[in-house]
Amino acid sequence: MPTATAPATTAPAATATLPEIRPGQSIELLKELHILTRDGKLNQDSRRKLKQVYHLYHFIEPLLDALAADGRDYHVADHGAGKSYLGFILYDLFLKERPQGHIHGIESRPELVEKSRQLAAKLGFARMDFLDLTVEEAITSPELPATVELVTALHACDTATDDAIRFALAKNAQAIVLVPCCQAEVAAILRQHKNESLGQTPLSELWRHPLHTREFGSHVTNVLRCLLLQSKGYQVTVTELVGWEHSLKNELIIARKTGGPKRDARDRAEAILKELNLEDLRGRFTD
Predict the structure, then answer these.
(1) Residues with Cβ < 8 Å from 81, sequence gap 6 or more?
(2) CA-based radius of gyration for the chain
(3) b/e string for 193-212 if b means 16 or more Cβ within 10 A?
(4) What is the layout of strands, in order, in the sheet containing 234-240?
(5) DSSP annotation string for the chain
(6) What band does 243 get if pLDDT is binned at 50, 70 and 90?
(7) Could you give the percent of the chain with pLDDT greater than 70?
(8) For 119, how many CA atoms within 13 A lie in the half-sphere containing its CB?
């Protein structure tokens, strides 16, 4: 946990001349994130970045509002945090002016963890900490609380998104925000069983060609993830995260805990795995 220092001052003059900047935002943070130029101005590229930041925050703010509504403390875990841009933005726009809430950035590259610790200390963001852990290690790490109310994972590659889901389920998360990336596992299994599948079902034409295998595998992966979350009692919304990091990996999955397990969602996942000859992955998507 970084040592608290006096928060970096905002710049009233800058916010007065830059209507895109919200009142109270840390100008120093926006410079560190390269959303503002070094002299505190916006250019065409940085305006686009700021718009993307606000677009993402638009989806997460209602989840934080719900967690903060009863006045109790809560925890947010950001998996594959990288330079922790998301965590810093959430802290600056939401947590900074409120007495409760903690953000944990989880990243396996120690140099990025250390850089984030230094920036949090510089900004006085005392309720942020950064852990040098893989998603898998984070599930059992004593450095994290037993319950984590909100879990995020943006562009966590391949099965790291599934690890983030397992973390969220283990921590009884009330909300989960995912932007999956580079889903290769399902496509690999589709290729492995392609000849067998061609003889079993005409649906295999959906992944006969390599390009279709990759794209169809990515789509099926996210469908199975949604069904897994639904089977665990989450209401799931799928939408686009337009333009974020200029990535084609643009699918945003938001899950909110609303009730108990749903057997029909698990049954549907089982049927899809069987029909597509993906039963090797039953343990990942139905347990």
Answers:
(1) 87, 105, 106, 107, 112, 116, 130
(2) 21
(3) beeebeeeeeebebbeeeee
(4) 128-132, 102-107, 75-79, 150-157, 175-181, 251-257, 234-240
(5) -PPP-PPPPP-HHHHHH-TTSPTT--HHHHHHTTSS-TTS---HHHHHHHHHHHHHHHHHHHHHHHHHTT----EEEEET-TTTHHHHHHIIIIITTSS--EEEEEES-HHHHHHHHHHHHHHT-TTEEEEE--HHHHTT-TTS-S--SEEEEEEEETTHHHHHHHHHHHTT-SEEEEEEE---HHHHHHHHTHHHHHHH-GGGGGGSSHHHHHHHHHHHHHHHHHHHHHHTTEEEEEEE-TTGGG-S--EEEEEEE-SS--HHHHHHHHHHHHHTT-GGGHHHH--
(6) low
(7) 91
(8) 23
Per-residue tokens: 65: 């509002």
- Inform me whether the pLDDT recorded for 16 exceeds 80: no
φ/ψ of 85, rounded to 5, equals -55, -45
Neighbours of 146 (CB within 10 A): 9
List Cβ neighbours of 143 (8 Å cut-off, separation of 6 or more).
131, 133
Q: Give 48: exposed, middle or buried? Use CB within 10 Å, 0-12, 13-18, 19+.
A: middle
Distance between CA 247 and CA 253 in Å, rounded? Answer: 15
Pairwise CA distance, residues 28 & 155, whole Å = 26
Q: What is the pLDDT of residues 136-177, one digit of tens each?
A: 899 999 999 999 999 999 877 778 889 999 999 999 999 999
